[in-house]
Fold this protein.
Amino acid sequence: MGADPPVRSASKLITTAQQHILEQKEIHFPDAGGTFSWLLSGITLATKMIEAKIRQAGLLDILGAAGETNVQGESQQKLDVFANQALLHCLGVRESVAILVSEENEEPVVFDRAPETGKYVIFFDPLDGSSNIDVNVSVGTIFSIFRRPESAEANVKSAILQPGWKQVAAGYVVYGSSTILVYTAGKGVFGFTLDPSIGAYVLSHDNLRMPEQGGFYSVNDAQYTHFPQAYQRYLDALRNGSLGREYSSRYVGSLVADFHRTMLKGGVFLYPPTKGYPSGKLRLLYEASPLAFIAEQAGGMATNGDQRILDIEPENIHQRTPLVIGGSVEVSEFQKRWRAAR
Ligand code: AHG
Ligand code: MN
Ligand code: MN
């Protein structure tokens, strides 16, 4: 009888998101105790519920409009409502949550928890790319986590209107050909692919880095004539090779899908000011800011032209911002042109 094969612990074969979050906690958040990982497990649980509904969408009465409009004046899809309820429930039962802010709720959801218990404020876009649900195109979920300020005069408003550089963690899930969770807790960016056979997110992209320069630019160029001139000149430069390479255009129409491609392949995504959205369409607190945190942690950049997205001092919870996000080469080139045109 030969020697037994070396026992390799199962955990060495795979690293689940829960294991990784706990490891990150040991390294970076020793003071956070289990609360931080317990908090993130609420998010991963909700996204698994959302993912299951999306995969069955064609079979259930879950497609189409819910017949309501949200605070943004956009018609809510049934999946928007389901995704929002899943996150409100899974996070609401975590006692470390003090406040929840959702794209789908006009007002913040405030929990009556003592400051030493309710330590976190969480923002989320429960379902990003809703207009794509009925045509089976990738959609996503975006989240952003802050600590509740401890100062005595802290109130709901000051807890919510914090600049993006104060984020503790941020992430997104893209429900595409596979379901991938990407998150940062301030020490690098990590991607996990949902393994349906075990129902766990498994580490698949260790320490993700965004290419300094990529091959794609991503913008809804039907609006080109309404873009500020600096954006038009910049797009012309991308198209005529002035940045030293040929670019292809890709636009999914779901921010999370367009951003995830930019994370992996590099390039730049832009949502400029338009006639319909003079301050840009994307919301600062639960779309631009979490993705900006992730982009910077992966070596990329994110700006509204005048300043770093993470430096913007928010004035209201659903405020919109222009967004140019991607590789350092493309975004620095945009900033140069934008400032020269001021
Ligand atoms: P949401 O579905 O959360 O409202 O977000 C939709 C956003 C974003 O996902 C995407 O980048 C953008 O809308 C597309 O807007 P246009 O259709 O105007 O290009
Ligand atoms: Mn969105
Ligand atoms: Mn949404």
Q: What stands out?
A: Residues 125, 128, 255, 287 surround manganese (II) ion (ligand 2) (CB under 6 Å). The CA atoms of residues 120 and 148 lie 5 Å apart.
